[in-house]
Design goal:
With about 250 residues, this protein is α/β, with parallel strands linked by helices. It folds into three domains: about 1-95, no CATH class; about 100-190, no CATH class; about 190-250, no CATH class. Helices cover about 50% and strands about 15% of the residues. It has a seven-stranded mixed beta sheet.
């Protein structure tokens, strides 16, 4: 039994170390709050952790019989490690392709843009036409303004495309502008929590309470919702400086 426990402990320590290094790097680089929440990556992390930290070491505990020939034992553990690596590669690739690249303000809302939202052609155009704000493999999340074109026909074309699940302006980094340039427009769109029709009455009340606890003014026009695919957070701004004061689960 001691041999089995030693094998289990070594396998578990190695799995924890590798998973911590990979997930920690992705979290510190791209998935800090609210990135992990809006992108909904916890399910992927849970699956990888289940395979790498629970199933893998447990199988090693089962197969690690000291009476087995070393060759057979090595083969069994290698098979377990291969399954673990496959799960780890799948999880890391999924997190990498879904990493947040931009937090955008466009028209009247805030939205997250993930790497998987951007087409290769648009990225090439952005690197040529808007190199300062174009995405690269090493790009960390940035707050930007994504205005519609000033030309009404171009703007209408993008809006129409969006209605039929085509490209939105937030998926066109060649059109991005700096966050600071969009602040005057952002100020015009700030609303009170009580005026957010997208939230239920219970959600609005819960957010009012949370804002009061944090010393924020729930009766001021100082907030906007930020949208992910399935989730959203309330972003609260300082009405004077437009500095972000808090980002709260709705």
């Amino acid at each position: 039994m001691r041999f089995r426990l030693q094998a289990f402990g070594l396998h578990l320590c190695a799995s924890v170390t590798v998973l911590t290094l990979i997930s920690g790097a992705l979290y510190l680089g791209w998935y800090r709050w609210p990135g992990w929440y809006l992108s909904g990556v916890l399910q992927v992390v849970e699956i990888v952790a289940l395979v790498d930290l629970a199933i893998g070491p447990t199988l090693t505990l089962i197969v690690a019989n000291p009476r087995k020939p070393r060759r057979v034992l090595a083969r069994d553990i290698a098979a377990i490690v291969i399954v673990q690596l496959a799960a780890l590669i799948y999880g890391a690739a999924t997190l990498w392709l879904g990493r947040p690249l931009y937090y955008t303000f466009s028209v009247d809302r805030l939205q997250i843009v993930q790497a998987s939202d951007l087409e290769a052609g648009e990225i090439v155009l952005a690197r040529t036409q808007n190199p300062v704000l174009a995405p690269h493999w090493y790009s960390l999340p940035r707050w930007i303004w994504a205005p519609l074109p000033e030309n009404p026909e171009e703007a209408a074309k993008i809006v129409g495309s969006t209605l039929f699940r085509g490209q939105d302006v937030i998926q066109m980094p060649r059109r991005f502008r700096s966050w600071e340039e969009g602040l005057p427009k952002l100020r015009e769109r700030l609303v009170r929590v009580d005026d957010m029709k997208e939230l239920s009455k219970a959600e609005r009340q819960a957010l009012r309470t949370r804002m009061s606890q944090l010393g924020l003014a729930p009766d001021q026009r100082n907030a906007l919702l930020m949208w992910g695919d399935l989730r959203r957070v309330l972003v609260v701004f300082d009405p004077g400086t437009l500095r972000i004061r808090a980002m709260l689960k709705s």
